[in-house]
Amino acid sequence: MRWSALPIVMAVSLHAESGSLTIHMILHAIGEERYEIAAGDGGLTLNSTFEYSDRGMKRSSAVALRMKSDYTPEGLEVKGGAARTVTVRGGTAAVQEDQSQRTVEAPARYFTIFGPSPFAVQMAMMRYWLAHGKPAELPVMRASATADPIRIEAAGRDSITVDGKAVALDRYTVANLMFGREILWMNHDGQLAAAMTFAGGLPMEAVRSEYEAALPQLFRAGVAQEMADLAAIEKQVPPERTGSFAIVGATLVDATGAAPVPDSAVVVRDGRIVAAGPRARVTIPRGAAMIDAKGQTLLPGLWEMHTHFSGVEFGPALLGAGITTARDCGGEFDYLVAQRDAVEKRSGLGPRMVLAGLVDAGGLKAFGHVTAETPEEGRAVVDRYHAARFQQMKLYTFLTPDVISAIAAEAHRLGMSVTGHVPQALNAFQGVEAGMDQINHLNYVSNMMRAPGGGRGAIDVTSEAARKAIQFFKDHGTVVDPTAGWGEMAGHSKEVDVAAFEPGITKAPFTLESKFRGMGGNTTAEQMRTRTAQTVAVIGALFKAGIPIVPGSDTGLVGYGLDRELELYVQAGMTPMEAIQSATIVSARAMKLDGDSGTVEAGKRADLILVDGDPVANISDIRKVVRVVANGRMYDCGRLWESVGFRR
């Protein structure tokens, strides 16, 4: 029997309630949330403390939420960090978020919440929604008028077993708390049983402490829900063209290094390029659909070489940016396999996925749920990933040298490559000597360019130490994934408008815009410019020496983050053509897929983009992708963006 919301609200009004939830990141337990709800003065007060360790970094917050007995919010205060408060009096809500303030008339139905955590506030939100007629849209009081209303939908029912007893849970999806949909489960006592914040950066889960043993079962149900959500998005954005068609009239930049070809023709049939070149020399099959691309530039689909695919909404956003292949650098095993297979086996909406299997040592500081403490465990982890068709292993911070060597040797035996953070037990030279083929993040490489005892000051890329480091990485064929744009975004100066270096922010949904505008530190604009100049100087020196540079945006602004990475590469001294090649043929070559992808040539995958501009003359025109062809399926990029909340 389904529970009735109103009796539960009344019961909670009369009795104190408390509970706890275990917090996970990528299915690894990292902390706890404790909450209490007390009745008094005709209303309710929810207090929650949220504490966890993110890869060794302690994080905590405390929240106080005052409500009427029917869960209508009257005040919300987030304690610690930036000021975030909401006070509702006489039908007027006063909201403060960091430096932004707004006073607005509260609608008849609304809620107060600043994001996905603490999860107890989401529980109160669900009780409010259930007790107030399950409105299709629930306005949320934020400091910006552009905040989208929360959308909650009943999605199904799951049953778990706790202490030998079946427990029925109602499953819901929640949109607009973060980018993408969350998944929540409520039990029939009106308590939050579990949550999966599958989108917005790195996956996080919460599960009621007494239900902890059921998390794997709930996670599998959540993955199935994600695939259902993906299918729903696909219905909104069907491909414009499939099968056989020809793109004519564009200037072809095939990324082989050849000069651009004006008035070109590219013929696609069943997911493959069958001909490409000057229009006058290409035979177009009789009856083939013709796409007129005069005035546009036709290029290979782009490669995003460092993402954390955290929800099915990433797929349309990446495709909208012209990304047709994405390397995931660490996520939840079952979800990544399901997402990859959806794209491969049923033409799901998203780029082809290349997977790097994340592994760390165990313990509270570990990143993710796949760990190895011994060489035997390391080899077993590699075997598991290889059996699931992962192409790489990704090493993480706390692995020990003997485990690293075992992982690398087993990966290489199986034809996999090894990438990752350089574990803290080694430096980058030692990591490469232990078997790392690639390195994620520039800092591990740039640290080796400093003279011993030289401190943390500026790097002289012409110094003896720098030349030695560059020669080492060149001699070993090390591929470097700098994630320079993510470093710029995460540490930008509050004196600098994000739109000044990342104009894509003006098109992003509120959930992403507010997140990235809220980032940054206390550095000055001048310090930010100095740091960026140092970053591009190092990238330029590596590139000039012939070290392969592949672009990735990490957890930056999905889609647009890759564009920013390429702009920084041009600042580093690459020509726009060389930057384009880094995101096409160089990346394909790094993943040993250059025989199948990375250029516009007959026989290769039909992964293509049409750009309303000339990125060979101006790399920023790469932001103007208007159509994308993913494995022979052509989509309108504007519709892709809109399907996941971006503006055209």
**Helix- and strand-based class?**
alpha+beta
Whole-number total of structural domains: 2
Give the overall form: globular
Summarize the main sheet. Answer: 13 strands, antiparallel
Query: Over all CA atoms, what is the radius of gyration?
Result: 25 Å
CATH homologous superfamily of the largest domain?
Metal-dependent hydrolases
- What is the count of β-strands? 29
Q: Which strand order spans the largest sheet, edge to edge or round the barrel?
A: 8-7-6-5-4-3-2-1-13-12-11-10-9
DSSP helix fraction: 25-40%
Provide a short characterization of the protein structure.
Helix content is 29%, strand content 29%. By secondary structure, it is α+β, with helices and mostly antiparallel strands. The protein has two domains: 5-232, no CATH class; 298-643, Alpha-Beta Barrel (TIM Barrel).
Give the SSE layout.
Elements: H1 5-14, E1 17-25, E2 28-40, E3 43-54, E4 57-68, E5 73-79, E6 84-89, E7 92-97, E8 100-105, H2 119-131, E9 151-162, E10 165-175, E11 181-187, E12 192-197, E13 204-208, H3 215-236, E14 244-248, E15 251-252, E16 264-269, E17 272-278, E18 289-292, E19 297-300, E20 302-307, H4 314-320, E21 323-328, H5 333-346, E22 352-359, H6 375-387, E23 392-395, H7 401-413, E24 417-420, H8 428-433, E25 438-440, H9 443-446, H10 464-475, E26 479-481, H11 484-490, H12 498-501, H13 510-517, H14 525-544, H15 560-571, H16 576-582, H17 585-590, E27 608-611, E28 625-630, E29 633-636, H18 637-643
Parallel strand pairs: 14-18, 15-19, 20-21, 21-22, 22-23, 23-24, 25-26
Antiparallel strand pairs: 1-2, 1-13, 2-3, 3-4, 4-5, 5-6, 6-7, 7-8, 9-10, 10-11, 11-12, 12-13, 14-16, 16-17, 19-27, 27-28, 28-29
Helix pairs in contact: 3-5, 4-18, 6-7, 15-16
